[in-house]
């Protein structure tokens, strides 16, 4: 075999290898495949494996078969009271019908995400527009997400896309509404605090009045009882004095005079200017000759 034949055979082998290489394709578990013949869909391959195609006539477009997450954040919506809120949501979707997806969107994932996102915006505005903000934060939240998902599915089915789920991740007041809400909440709390303070002051005043009345009543009762006891003591003292006076009037007068001397003369620096013949000094006089004492004045009356 001459060199010319070897060159031809080598060339044929290379051509055969290239044709063989261009005649097969592999589909894995994460993709579907569209086999296009001269730009038209020839068949759809949905199972993983090794497949063959016509070289130069067929082209293969791989389409992701996994669930995709398309985020839709910072979307302004209005509630039934026309208050603006900012909503963050995301969509779980995957390509259900590869043929329809190719026919409607040209198998363009970016275009699919844009179309679904636009429809999601409309569904969010429609759903939130029928409710108040409080409803969006209550048990209606799950119902709202189901409504949004169902509305989105109608649009997505026509594109060959399956909407697995729609979730609202965050619902916040817009900056202006947030300031207004904080101001309203602050006013409400201040009014509530003022009401509580007023009730406290009223209770304090009532308790102070009741306490003052109780103290006054107890002091009056104690004073009354003290006066009664003091009166009883004075009466008992006068009774004792009267009995002592009746038993020995002269000794009683002498005892009373001694008490008067002690009170008046027992203090240092006391100066008294009296007549020596005064009744006050009658027990300081000497006895007369013959053993008779000086005439004594009448005995003092018992103190009252």
Which keywords apply here?
304 residues, alpha+beta, three-stranded antiparallel sheet
Helix share, percent = 40-55%
Regarding quaternary structure, what we see is single chain
Beta fraction of the residues? 15-25%
**Strand line-up of the largest beta sheet:** 3-2-5
Shape annotation:
rod-shaped
Count the E strands: 8
Helix run count: 7
Biggest sheet details: 3 strands, antiparallel
**Alpha-carbon Rg, integer:** 59 Å
Mean pLDDT: 80
Task: Report the uncertain regions.
Answer: 287-304
Report, as a whole number of angstroms, the end-to-end distance: 168 Å
Would you tell me the structural class of the helices and strands?
alpha+beta
Helix and strand element order:
HEEEEEEEHHHHEHH
Give an account of the 3D structure.
- With 304 residues, this protein is α+β, with helices and mostly antiparallel strands.
- The protein is 52% helix and 21% strand.
- It is built from seven helices and eight strands.
- The protein has helices at residues 3-21, 98-105, 109-128, 133-136, 140-157, 175-247, 249-265; strands spanning 24-27, 31-37, 40-45, 49-52, 58-64, 68-78, 84-95, 161-173.
- The strands form three sheets. It has a three-stranded antiparallel beta sheet, with helices on one face. It has a three-stranded antiparallel beta sheet with strand order 6-7-8.
- The longest helix is centred in the last third of the chain and has 73 residues, at 175-247.
- The N and C termini lie far apart (168 Å).
- The model is unreliable at 287-304 (pLDDT under 50).
């Amino acid at each position: 075999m001459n060199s010319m034949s070897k060159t031809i055979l080598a060339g044929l082998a290379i051509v055969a290898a290239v044709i063989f290489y261009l005649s097969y394709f592999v589909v894995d578990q994460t993709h579907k495949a569209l086999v296009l013949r001269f730009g038209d869909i020839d068949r759809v391959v949905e199972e993983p494996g090794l497949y063959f195609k016509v070289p130069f006539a067929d082209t293969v477009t791989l389409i992701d078969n996994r669930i995709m997450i398309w985020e839709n954040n910072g979307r302004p919506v209005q509630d039934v009271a026309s208050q603006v809120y900012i909503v963050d949501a995301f969509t779980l979707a995957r390509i259900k019908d590869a043929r329809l997806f190719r026919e409607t969107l040209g198998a363009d994932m970016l275009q699919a995400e844009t179309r679904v996102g636009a429809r999601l915006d409309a569904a969010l505005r429609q759903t939130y527009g029928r409710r108040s903000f409080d409803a969006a934060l209550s048990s209606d939240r799950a119902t709202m997400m189901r409504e949004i998902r169902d509305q989105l599915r109608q649009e997505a089915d026509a594109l060959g896309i399956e909407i697995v789920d729609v979730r609202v991740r965050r619902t916040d007041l817009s900056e202006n509404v947030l300031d207004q809400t904080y101001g309203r909440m602050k006013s409400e709390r201040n009014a509530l605090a003022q009401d509580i303070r007023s009730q406290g002051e009223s209770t304090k005043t009532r308790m102070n009045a009741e306490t003052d009345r109780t103290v006054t009543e107890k002091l009056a009762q104690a004073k009354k009882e003290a006066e009664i006891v003091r009166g009883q003591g004075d009466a008992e003292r006068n009774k004792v004095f009267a009995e002592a006076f009746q038993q020995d009037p002269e000794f009683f007068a002498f005892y009373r005079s001694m008490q008067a001397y002690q009170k008046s003369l027992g203090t240092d620096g006391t100066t008294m200017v009296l007549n020596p013949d005064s009744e006050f000094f009658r027990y300081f006089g000497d006895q007369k000759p013959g053993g008779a004492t000086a005439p004594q004045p009448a005995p003092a009356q018992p103190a009252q």
